Amino acid sequence: MSVLRVLVVAAPSSAQEVPWALYDAQQRLVRAGKGAKAAWPTALRKEAVLAACAVRLARVTLPPMPADRVAAAAAFALEDQLAGPAQAQHLVASARGRDGAVEVAVAARSLLAPLRDEFARVVAEPAVAPIPPTGVWRWYDSGVGGGFVRRPDGSAFALGAPDPGALPPELALAFGQLTRSRAAMPRVEVAFPVEDAQLRAWSGHGGAAFVAVPPWHWDQDGAALAAATDLLQGDFSREPRALPVRAARRFRWALGLVTAALALHVGATVLEWAWLRYETWQTARSIVATARNAGAGDAADAEAAAAALARRFSDVRHRAGLVAPGDALPLLARAAPALGALPPGAVKSATYSAGTWTFDLGKLDPTLAAVLDRKLAAAGLATLAATTAAGTRLRIAPAAGTELP
Description:
This protein has 11 helices and 17 strands. By secondary structure, the chain is α+β, with helices and mostly antiparallel strands.
């Protein structure tokens, strides 16, 4: 299958002339040239090669992790090294090596979107150039002008056009960083035609040895172009995304444990509720039986039986000439400390009937009314209050469980 590869800085316009190269099915270079789209040769497949000035290669080292987390971890590691906002950059990470090394290509997202619409693949020009050996930096010429330096770890950075009078600023800056970190200066191999005098001048300016090596051109190795990492990945992938694995399938063991725990919790709650219901039933039976044995009548339920017992107790106390807790004076004595704290004249009237005192009170401050209610409850009294036109009507009776001494 024939492949046309075009070297671009951005998506080319119809009239823009750009370098191109045509390859056969064995990735052999058939012919190359430069021209606008109308002059490009016909091919079954079109690919773009993003020039070095538009893409950067970085290298990071990551700890062991699942393959699907490498890209996110690499982006985090490079966050403080990106030019511009992180969300404006597109990062493509290679597989993690045995030593944890990951090669990351970084390009502007705005470049990739239009290239995706026109080309089947997009690769980085620096990624096609051979990686130099340890201790060597290799300076390559870019097919669109300027150049780039590739280092032994696979990383690469772009350079401007060579200046006969001085080092490119990017290279001088990189040398300065090496000097500050007290790292050894590399030997710089220049892979494009250059005069010996120029090499000596650069060596004098940079403090590193510059030597000439055979020239390299972006289109000379079709196999390297074919093997380079495709930048159209992630959001820009041309392949249909695989359907996400269902959470229930991915986390089936966790879901099983959660389900079992929930079932156990519900089961325990139901058992506890049933036991409490059983205890309540037993208590009610005991109260009814006690009332029957005490001669208080044959009550239908525990509430009626408790009331009958209270009445029976009061009757027995009265026959013995004693007062019962629900009588007027004992009940008033329990309420007196709380009522005595009210302002003078607050109690308008008081009426006693069938174990209950009813007081008509004047208008009370809400805070004072709340304090009164708390004090009455602390004295073992049940209260019922209602607002009237004149103020408040308060009913007081012994609280449940306090009818007997």
